[in-house]
């Protein structure tokens, strides 16, 4: 069976999938050594190094990780419902700003990206969630939050997460200060 991460735009879904995919040695992801190299060479915090989005797939296979925003998951549901077993939702619950970097969140996104709503849409799957606030925390916090889920990361990924977080934090602080 494969894994799926559902997230709103700019909420770190690609980054999570890179780490989780490498940690579980999933077929459609690069390994830790290559991922580490990519993260060290990446100056713009772009983490789209694996083609994981549902709308980029011609077929869906076992032992992979896929990504999608809610509309993409909804549109692909009939094609993926039997291949996906475990789903991780990046919930916007508790996030107190209207923007993520330069992307402005809508009220609908705050309502839709919650565990109760997504579980009603996709009752076929085992859905677990973490919050955007968890992703915007240190590698230690993220590792702790993912423990016991089907999306754990090992210690070696904590440093990659902290590196990614440091790259995006300056941009987040800039936009969030403007809102306050």
Biggest β-sheet: strands ordered side by side in the sheet: 2-1-3-6
Rg of Cα set: 15 Å
Shape: globular
**What class, by secondary structure content?**
alpha/beta
Helix content: 40-55%
In CATH, what is the class? Alpha Beta
Enumerate the spans where pLDDT stays under 50 for 5 or more consecutive residues.
none
Secondary-structure element order, N to C: EHHEHEEEHHEHHH
CATH architecture: 3-Layer(aba) Sandwich
**Largest sheet geometry:** 4 strands, parallel
Strands, count:
6
Q: Give the number of domains.
A: 1
Q: What is the overall number of helices?
A: 8
Mean pLDDT across the residues is 85
Termini separation = 44 Å
- Please name the CATH topology: Rossmann fold
Structure description:
The protein has 180 residues and is an alpha/beta fold. It has a single domain (2-179), classed as Rossmann fold, CATH 3.40.50. It is 45% helix and 15% strand. The protein contains 8 helices and 6 strands, in the order E-H-H-E-H-E-E-E-H-H-E-H-H-H. The protein has helices at residues 13-23, 32-41, 70-80, 107-112, 115-121, 132-135, 139-146, 156-179, and strands at residues 2-6, 65-68, 84-91, 99-100, 103-104, 126-131. The strands form 2 sheets. It has a 4-stranded parallel β-sheet, with helices on both faces. It has a two-stranded antiparallel sheet with strand order 4-5. Strand 4 and strand 5 (103-104) form a beta hairpin. Helix 2 (32-41) packs parallel to helix 8 and helix 7 (139-146) packs across helix 8. The longest helix is centred in the last third of the chain and has 24 residues, at 156-179. The radius of gyration is 15 Å and the shape is globular. The relative contact order is 0.19.
């Amino acid at each position: 069976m494969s894994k799926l991460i559902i997230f709103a735009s700019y909420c770190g879904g690609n980054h999570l999938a890179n780490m989780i995919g490498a940690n579980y040695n999933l077929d459609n992801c690069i390994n830790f050594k290559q991922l580490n190299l990519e993260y060290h060479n990446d100056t713009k915090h772009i983490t789209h190094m694996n083609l994981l989005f549902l709308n980029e797939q011609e077929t869906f296979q076992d032992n992979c990780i896929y990504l999608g925003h809610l509309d993409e998951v909804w549109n692909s549901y009939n094609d993926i419902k039997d291949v996906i077993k475990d789903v991780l939702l990046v919930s916007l619950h508790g996030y107190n700003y209207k923007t993520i970097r330069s992307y402005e969140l809508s009220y609908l996104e705050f309502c839709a990206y919650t565990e109760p709503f997504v579980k009603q849409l996709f009752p076929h799957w085992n859905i677990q969630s973490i919050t955007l606030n968890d992703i915007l925390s240190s590698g230690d916090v993220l590792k702790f939050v993912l423990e016991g889920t089907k999306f754990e990361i090992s210690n070696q990924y904590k440093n990659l997460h902290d590196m990614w977080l440091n790259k995006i934090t300056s941009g987040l602080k800039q936009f969030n200060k403007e809102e306050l």
